[in-house]
Design a protein that fits this description.
Structural class of chain B: alpha/beta
Number of helices of chain B: 12
Number of strands of chain A: 9
Shape of chain B: globular
Shape of chain A: globular
Oligomer: heterodimer
Number of helices of chain A: 10
Bound molecules: thiamine diphosphate, iron/sulfur cluster
Helix content of chain A: 25-40%
Strand content of chain B: 15-25%
Structural class of chain A: alpha/beta
Radius of gyration of chain A: 17 Å
Strand order of the largest sheet of chain A: 2-1-3-4-8-7-9
Number of strands of chain B: 15
Distance between the termini of chain A: 39 Å
Helix content of chain B: 40-55%
Chain lengths: ~250, ~350
């Protein structure tokens, strides 16, 4: 019998702790598949961040470092500078990357640090229970925006891909989602491209994945996917913001 | 002794680090230690190492975490306010048991403070500073030559115990010039680090550098392992110097620049017939009790702790003496220095010889 579908070698056998219907799991799988397909498992070092993905070092079957909240890009910088021929990636949430770790992500990009960032944007602080994130939409209810996010009090959401695309050190940014099979295929291509850009030494690459948090959004998994499509994509348009086209040689 | 030269403290320290095998430095500018990153930015590329000017001290210490985890010998340097920002990362380094050398060329505080030498960071260095139960090994040089020697030792201790080590010096030691010589013997090959995250070929257990333990039993296990290591460090690595204790009526106690001032005070006092000795801790943590026991055994009952702060190490001294002698304190801070004359005056008071 021919195997047509198997778990990538780059994922461990551990059961993940993600809530049912959370898209973190799909994104893990895409990253793992790409690493396996590129044949770089033996020379990849991952950096887990703080947030729901804090245990991702248990799930990726790779050498991994766990970073402090927001500091993954600095940790990745240290690894990559010491081991320039290795593939180094971070896996970060929106609270991690766009709030406490804004300085680290902006400057890793500005330095053109040759690393790949997987940025999971679910518009909330999942792990700590659904507080407002920098990416929470205007009007969106969070535990710290009980009447919905108000710009006068809470400011505006940050579009990370667009912001980082303005930096010369950024080689690639793309925003994708994993709401249906076609979207998943696109997300996979973007993630692969981000790693390929690192492999050819072009500099900083980031893929933002719009993701759901059914638990903290107070929705079923399906409702959450629909809500994402209907509300998030209009503010966070999908596509490549820098480094579109073929992977440069 | 082929290699004796006159060097500024900060540069001598940086050179010593390179010779000790340091191959990664990340830092952020702050007076009075800027010569260290400047020197490293020139020197590290010559030996195949890497220098990164980080966007902040927060990033610098986390770059160290990554680089150390990837197997390199790593160092950062800063001064008081910058060291405060590094405390988060220092706690993580200690928890993940990563070797790293952290230099604090301390200045006056609190807050933005000033840029002159002070010793107000003793508590922060020796009692923690970041969250959780951990210890740094803290080395307290009192001359530029000693700074060079202790830098080499710092890298050795960091590797041996897989623990961050702090060199706590100050603006005077960083900025002064003195003749120094370097150990000529070449640095031993970078030790093999089987735990480093260098990419997993399946030929060893997967390496994960982590400090998260959600199960209390597991976290307690980590803490117990750390405590065992700290006990071993305490038993083995205490360092100190004593001067003129044998016939002394009073022992001065000081470290670093304050200890140098105490030496002058001691000479001045002895010339005036005051029998003064000196106890100089070289490790702030673990704190050496041996020289105090020796002083008590010699019959010394009076101790004058001199610091460039308003009383920090004096607490450690009181703990060791535990009521078996009189512990007095004299300090200046904010960049002001205790003078030898003022110290002698304090000794006269302590000995009840004000009118001699
Ligand atoms: C210094 C620090 N501050 C706060 C926290 C608490 N904390 C843990 S996860 C988290 C939010 C993570 O949110 P996000 O990055 O969006 O990831 P998600 O959980 O949504 O996947 C916070 C604030 C921490 N661990 N460390
Ligand atoms: S809290 Fe939200 S982001 Fe976290 S695992 Fe659950 S659904 Fe996913």
């Amino acid at each position: 019998m021919r195997t047509v579908f198997a778990k990538p070698r780059t994922l461990t056998d551990a059961h993940t702790h993600y809530c049912p219907g959370c898209t973190h799991g799909i994104i893990h799988r895409l990253v793992a598949e790409v690493i396996e397909e590129l044949g770089v498992q033996e020379r990849t070092v991952g950096v887990a961040s703080v947030g729901c993905s804090v245990l991702s070092h248990r799930y990726f079957n790779l050498d991994m470092q766990e970073a402090a909240h927001g500091r993954a890009p600095a940790v990745a910088t240290g690894i990559k500078r010491v081991l320039p021929d290795r593939v180094v990636f971070t896996y970060q949430g929106d609270g991690d990357l766009a709030s406490i770790g804004t300085a680290e992500i902006v400057h890793a990009a500005a330095r053109g640090e040759n690393i790949t960032v997987i940025f999971v944007n679910n518009g909330t602080y999942g792990m700590t229970g659904g507080q407002m994130a920098p990416t929470t939409l205007v009007g969106q209810v969070a535990t710290t925006t009980p009447g919905g996010r108000k710009t006068g009090r809470d400011g505006y959401p940050i579009r990370v891909c667009e912001m980082l695309a303005t930096l010369d050190g950024t080689a690639y940014t793309a925003r994708v989602t994993v709401t249906d099979p076609a979207a998943v295929a696109k997300a996979r291509r973007a993630i692969k491209k981000a790693f390929q850009i690192q492999l050819v030494g072009k500099g900083f690459s980031l893929v933002e994945v719009l993701s759901t948090c059914p638990v903290n959004w107070g929705m079923t998994p399906l409702e959450a996917l629909r809500w994402l499509k209907e509300n998030m994509i209009s503010y966070y348009p999908l596509g490549e913001f820098k480094g579109g086209g073929e992977v440069p040689a | 002794m082929g290699d004796r030269r006159l060097m500024k403290g900060n540069e001598a320290l940086a050179e010593a680090a390179v010779r000790a095998g340091c191959r990664f430095f990340a830092g952020y500018p702050i007076t009075p230690q800027n010569e260290i990153p400047e020197y490293m930015s020139r020197r590290l590329p010559e030996v195949g190492g890497t220098f990164v000017q980080a966007e902040s001290e927060v990033a610098a210490i986390n770059m160290l975490y990554g680089a150390s985890g990837a197997g390199a010998r790593v160092m950062t340097s800063s001064s008081s306010p910058g060291i405060s920002l590094m405390q988060e990362g220092i706690s993580y380094l200690a928890a993940a048991e990563l070797p790293a050398v952290i230099v604090n060329m301390a200045r006056g505080g609190p807050g933005l403070g000033g840029i002159q030498a002070a010793q107000g960071d003793y508590f922060q260095a020796t009692k923690g500073g970041g969250h959780g139960d951990y210890h740094l090994i803290v080395l307290l040089p009192a001359s530029i030559q000693e700074m060079v020697d202790l830098t080499r030792l710092a890298f050795e201790l960091a590797d041996r115990y897989r623990n961050p080590v702090m060199l706590l010096a100050d603006a005077v030691l960083g900025q002064a010039m003195e003749p120094v010589s370097f150990v000529d013997e070449p640095v031993t090959e970078k030790p093999f680090r089987p735990w480093a995250t260098t990419g997993w070929k399946g030929d060893r257990p997967r390496n994960v550098i982590n400090s998260l333990y959600l199960e209390p039993e597991e976290l307690e296990k980590l803490n117990l392992r750390l405590q065992k290591k700290y006990a071993e460090i305490s038993a083995r690595e205490k360092r100190w110097e004593t001067v003129n204790l044998d016939d002394a009526d009073v022992a001065l106690v000081a470290y670093g620049t304050a200890a140098r001032i105490c030496r002058s005070a001691m000479e001045k006092g002895r010339a005036a017939g005051l029998k003064m000795g000196l106890i100089r801790p070289i490790t702030g943590w673990p704190f050496p009790e041996q020289p105090f026991e020796k002083a008590l055994a010699l019959g010394i009952k009076k101790f004058l702790v001199v610091e460039m702060n308003y009383g920090q190490m004096v607490e450690d001294v009181r703990l060791v003496i535990s009521g078996r002698g009189q512990v007095a304190f004299y300090g200046r801070a904010g960049g002001m220095m205790p003078t030898p004359a003022a110290i002698v005056e304090e000794v006269r008071k302590l000995l009840g010889r004000v009118n001699d």
